[in-house]
Amino acid sequence: MQRRWYTAGAIIAGFAMLATACTGGAGSTAGGGGTTKGEIIIASDQPTSGGDASDGLPAQNGIQFAVESAGSIKGFKLTFKGWDDTVNGTHDPQKGAQNIQEMISDAKILGMIGPNNSNVARAMIPIANRASFTMISAANTNECLTQTFAYCEADTGTTPAKLRPNGVNNYFRVAAADTFQGPAAADFVVDTLKLTKVAVWSDNETFGKGVADKFTAEITKKGGTVVLRQDFDTKTTNDWKPFLTDAKNKGAQAVYAGATSGTKICIPRAQMKGILDAPYLVPDGGVNSQCIKDAADNAANLYGTVAAADANQNPDAKATIDAFTKRFPKKEDVGSYTFPAMDCANILIDAIGRAIDANGGNMPSREQVRAAVAATKSFKGTTGTYTFDANGDPTSPTMAIFQTKGSPLDWVFVKQFGVGG
Amino acid sequence: MVGSLKQARIAFVGAPIGRLVNLLVILAVLYAIFILATKIFAQGPSYFLQILTFGVANGAIYALVALGYTMVYGIIELINFAHGDLFTLGGFISVFLLPIFGLDASKAGTPGIILPLLAVFIVTMLICGAINVTIERVAYRPLRHAPRLAPLITAVGMSFVLEGVMFLWKGPFNVPYPNLLPTNGIVIGGATIGVKDIFVIVVAAILMIVLALFVSRSTLGKAMRATAQDQDATELMGIDINRTIAATFFIGAVLAGAGGTIFGLYYNTLVFDLGFSAGLFAFTAAVFGGIGNIQGAALGGLLIGLITALWDGYMESTWTQVIIFAILILVLVFRPTGLLGMRVPEK
Q1: Number of domains composing chain A
Q2: Which of A54, A231, A235 lies closest to B173 in CB terms?
Q3: Same structural domain for residues A262 and A378?
Q4: Per-residue pLDDT tens digits for A179-224
């Protein structure tokens, strides 16, 4: 009998520890400043523990930094709270949906920054929309999240209108849509690298396949040829050598990969050694330190597109970048979406400030915050000046191109240019 | 049970509708083979030889893992789901051991790596063996007389435990494995057969031959075969079946550990949940060849490696998994016991 009590005690203690661990894992909080009116929480949703953590953590750092730097807004204390959308090592739409429900249930949270992945956004937007809850993403690039195309229904199973059941837009982003990213890489191959024959592979996911298809369309339009195209189930594929050998035999001068770090984007690069000596191009899902590690001794000659401007090219951002580096000193703390995510958080904080004013200095409603974000005009961030169009897209998005260079190898800025607008 | 299954199958294959379905499936497979053959012909022999090399090397790794599944199933009729993760753990352990034995990328391709690498192989294999024997002792032996589902679930549980341990140890990212083997190769008929490919195939072949000899010639091998046939009678003959079963787990894990190390040396990358997909394919290979049958597992692994490489190399890789499992279904419909037949006691 006594033994049974011990067992029960041990189980309860175990659950208690688990519960503590979970609360700890839900997110770290930070804040400060002169605060008398109460607390406003800025939430974030990023993949901060899985295979995509090499993108998610640097973005979360940018958001946390923005909230910490602001400290307070018009008498309200600002606090950061981060959610993780990773399940079993990879970003998960259901987890994202669960996270946003938790955020909505907390009245102190007036908006969130994220998510990182387009398929997660697709699960989150309708839930947030019903609650007029503002979302601003730094890295979602799938065009069907904001723009209506004939193929959206077939390719993604939904349309911007279906994602917004209450009819009013609550989702904004600073990233350039994939309608620009694939073509930007294709233009770079033809115009800058002066190559025309390319082998293309994708991870067969919404983002990867979409960006690979748009790359293919643009390079064909420019007179180039896709000599080989394959879509892989990257969960079960370890060997890209047959594909690469085929590409070499068909005369490929470059390889384009539509995938992310979580779907082994740069593993084939390592396998190219000894088979095909040619440039390897990746979209923003591969412009990170994990890609360089995965490409092992073949990491040189990699090119990548990022759907946002590089903050380092903006002289006005230098003080902010220095302060960020002081707060987050490690090399892997910063990534290509750190500063875009920081800008998103600052856009939200700025809008909350205007919403407080509109509400006579009191805690604004979520709808007031949403309207203030939509009304954002020429907001000067570290990566550019942002105004949102009716769809929630930036009116003047930027694409940047990076290349691996130096010793030790790292991503180095090549050029950036405005797209659309 | 086996009899009624056989009857059901004969009734289905014999029925008019069954015959039609079979005919259609056979036609579809013949058509696919025809397309593949024309493509192989069009792309020339050197490319074919190259793809074949990748396929055999890949298949050799699957075969090593498949052997562990098949040996354990053969002796206690348990599908040891943790086996794929043990294979991954083998890779993780060896990547941990490499610097201890003074191996790093700077020594790549030099003759000096041979002895330390051999030591890494042996230590990894022994550690994996010890872990698997512990797993058997903790999670399977207490359930040996429990209903069949209970050890199956503990096996799934052990799989998650091992994945969790590796996740905590190395994190969610791809773990780089130093490229130690020479990257050059020999050119035969326009195809480059890499030293790496030869290494994988030769090491796997040696291990499999040693295993086959061990099981057919040694006393312990004889005890294993006896235990597989009838545990009670074996025990009556004075054979310690606990020891025999533990030895089976040990040998299976030794091969998985070697497989993990070979995988790391060949692909130069590992990830904590690699065992799930690798294990699934290896298990499929074991069923393909006839579960419980050692030669069958080797053949099944080789076939899966070859089909994957041929399909990836000539056709659309989106369909590779579909093709593998379609062929598996076909083989099982016509040969329910796998290509070389099951080696399971009739009950």
Answers
A1: 2
A2: A54
A3: no
A4: 999 999 999 999 999 999 999 999 998 889 989 999 999 999 999 9
Residues A162 and A198 in one domain: no
In a domain, A281, yes or no: yes
Is B325's Cβ below 8 Å from some Cβ in A?
Answer: no
pLDDT on residue B197 = 94
Residues of chain B neighbouring A246 (CB-CB closer than 8 A): 47, 313-314
Do A294 and B185 make contact, defined as CB atoms within 8 angstroms?
A: no
> How many Å is the Cα radius of gyration of chain A?
22
10 Å CB burial of residue B82 (0-12, 13-18, 19+) is buried
- Within 8 A of A51 by CB-CB distance, chain B residues are 172-174, 271
Q: Are A182 and A150 in a shared domain?
A: no
- Do A131 and A82 have their domain in common? yes
Strand ranges (DSSP E) for B195-332?
269-270
Give the E-state strand segments of chain B in sequence order: 175-176, 185-188, 191-194, 269-270
The 3-state DSSP class for residue B128 equals helix
Q: Does A335 lie in the same domain as A292?
A: no
Do A202 and A349 lie in one domain? The reply is no
Distance, in Å, from the CA atom of B250 to the CA atom of B11, rounded to the nearest integer, reads: 42
Average pLDDT, chain A: 90
Which residue from B173, B272, B280 is facing A290, i.e. has the nearest CB?
B173
Q: Examine the pLDDT at B329 and tell me if it is beyond 90.
A: no
- Higher-pLDDT residue of A317, A24: A317
pLDDT greater than 60 at residue A27? no
The dihedral of CA B41, B44, B50, B51: what is its sign?
Answer: negative
Query: What is the extent of the structural domain holding A267?
Result: 178-306
Same domain (yes/no): A183, A323: no
Q: Which of B267, B273, B318 is opposite residue A231, by nearest beta carbon?
A: B318
CATH code assigned at A268: 3.40.50.2300
Q: Does A408 contact chain B (CB < 8 Å)?
A: no
Chain B residues touching residue A245 (CB < 8 angstroms): 47, 50-51, 54, 313
Q: Are residues A30 and A90 in the same domain?
A: yes
